[in-house]
Amino acid sequence: MLLFLLLLGIVGPHCTSARTHSIKYFYTASSGVTNFPEFVLVGLVDDVEMVHYDSNTKRAEPKQDWMKVITDEDPQYWERNTQSALGSQQVHKNNIEIVKQRLNQTGGVHINQWMYGCDWDEETGEVKGYDHYGFDGEDFLILDLETETWIAPRPEAVLTKRRWDNDKAQMAEIKNYFTQICPEYLKKYVNLGRSSLMRTEIPSVSLLQKSPSSPVSCHATGFYPDRAAMFWTRDGEELHDNVDHGEILPNHDGSFQMSVALNVSSFPAEHWDKYRCVFQLSGVKDHVIVLDPAVIRTNRGIPSSSSSSSVLHWKLSLSSSLGLDFWFTGR
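The line above is the sequence of Ig-like domain-containing protein; the predicted structure tokens follow.
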């Protein structure tokens, strides 16, 4: 599951619009994997987990407080979705066996994955749907909504592609789901969780270095949302060489952290003041920090000359977010 999430590359290299919202469902079925549920379903709104189901608990459960209130208007919501997830669990278990037969395999470790959802631009109203199937870490089937056909990257998927392409009634149902139903429920869930999903948390940012010969890492932690970017510049131009970009990672409290390391051994110390670390967070003003040895935190301790500025706690100023029943089909 984690591999599938990472391969999707949810976060882009620079900030995305704070007005674009998304709902994504991830289904993962496995066989031959020990100490892991045979089936896991996770629902995300704006990349925040809001619902979870697995074959151990056999219950669809809310992961955010704002999802609990949905039963006020729909008392059977969680029971209905539990039953839906149970059915989907069996479908995906069967799918593993079908693909194994096509691969002429009888055992081993296998992972069947399904990701679908939609994006909605709150400003323009534009909607984009997506529907991907994966098997053993590789793309298996991908929906092309523009042509209303399926793409089969693997030969084993061609048979299913042809059958699904010929089922015009099913394609009409799928298209209606992604263009009408999915965004309708996405809007509903965004409204339920707006105060949480649309909040902004300002990070603490530090320059870190393990040793004099090590890269200098610009590290930000505690920010929200995850629509953030950080990069190094020289004389105002973004650097691509001698830079190592870390991924945006979650913290235990729901906030995020990220780091970008600069190889300072590639240029003389007298040029350090030409370099800047730039942190961007959706909805807030860009903040820039000069590469200054006086403020770098190291394993050797913080230079005494740095005084209170040794750790840069940026208080950035503000410049101026699925109520979807689980949808599955036994394809």
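Note on the example: Residues 1-17, 303-331 have pLDDT under 50 and may be disordered. The longest strand covers residues 20-31.
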